[in-house]
Amino acid sequence: MLVRIDPSSTAPLFEQVAASLRRALTDGSPAPGEQLPPARELAAALEINVHTVLRAYALLRDEGLIDLRRRRGAVVLGGASSRARLVELATELVREAKRADVGLEELTGLLKERYS
Amino acid sequence: MTKLIRVLAATVVLPGAALAVTTVLVNAWWDRLPDPIAVHWSSEPDRAGARGLLVGASLILGGVLTVAFATFTVIALRRGRPLPRVGVGLGAGFAAMPPAVLLAVLVPNLDAPDWHAATGSGVTVLVMAGVTVLGVVAAFTGGLPGPVPASAEARPSVGLEPGQRAYWSGRAENRAMLWSFALAPLAIAVVPSGSQWLWVAVLVAIAELLTALTYRVTATVDATGVTIRFGVLGFPRRHIELDAIREATARELTTFGDGGLGIRVNPVSGTTAYKVRGGPALALVLESGRTVLVSVADPETGAGLVNDLIAQRITRID
User: Fold this and answer.
1) Does one domain contain both B40 and B70?
2) Domain ranges of chain A
3) Binary contact (B164, A4; C-beta < 8 A)
4) What is the model's pTM?
5) Residue in chain B lying closest to A6 (CA)
6) ipTM score of complex
7) Hey, what CATH topology would domain A13-115 get?
């Protein structure tokens, strides 16, 4: 599991951390049931604030990729790999839509049409 | 032929062969030698010594010198130091000298009724010529002039840009190892061993504790270096500073290679292996010449990050 950040990038650090972890989950490492590194350890290694890491973990939890437990830390959920891939594709889709000046309603319509 | 085999051939096989040949000849000639035997000549024998003492001391000294010289050269090789041909040749010749001198002494004593009658010490020239040839062969076999070059394998990289920060974590575990020890109490209950139950319970508890401590290994890489942790508690733990690492690569290990599973230290090859299974492993070549192997998943990425951090540290201005 490789977590990489670029402090000079315009993207917020917590999003960079979350994106790296999402990519790792897409590759299947760590596997469901395994833990992500403790927030404190990851923050120290990347020389960032621990709350930045916790915010990234909270984002991944909201995406249904991990579970945050008081004693066990951040645990990868079943199906995290395919779900992380889906989130990555959705992010890419939204980025492309914005670049092509396609609005939310039009994009939603497009998705509904393809989904049915 | 690898460098280690060349060095061992020059420092162990050649002097060892001289020692072995001498031992065989001494054994064959034992009944044909007087006791005491002549050990020094001027125009005729002028000094004698006890046969057993001379033979024993010479063979033991030859063995000790061979082992000491081989150990010295292997350590030098492991640390990446050059092995000059002259040094290797002189060392091998010096190690072969005690059995050679013994031969030079014994041949004139052969079939002599007593040590005063021992003649024909011209064999010394032949024996010394043999030692010289042995030294020259050893010099060209095991001499490695110039520093040992770094491995020519391509160094993995994850493309870490200047200013970027990164963290990598990889791990491996051996559940079969865990289960085999977990089932130990059942096996002991089924198979009557005749031992006292208390001792059996203590032994099983120790075995299961050791298994819990060692069935999993984790390696993490960050700007400070590489940290290796064993078991569920993360102990034993070893941290290797980035400054102490020369380069990192990924390597494929066999289950029983490098001494088997667990923490294995090989003083000859300079390898320390942290293994819970065979397969892919992170290989760290240290500045000291030692190698550290850690059996973890996706070692290419970990090795790439180590190499990039080393390069970053070299070019970084703090």
Assistant:
1) yes
2) 13-115
3) yes
4) 0.63
5) B164
6) 0.87
7) Arc Repressor Mutant, subunit A (1.10.10)
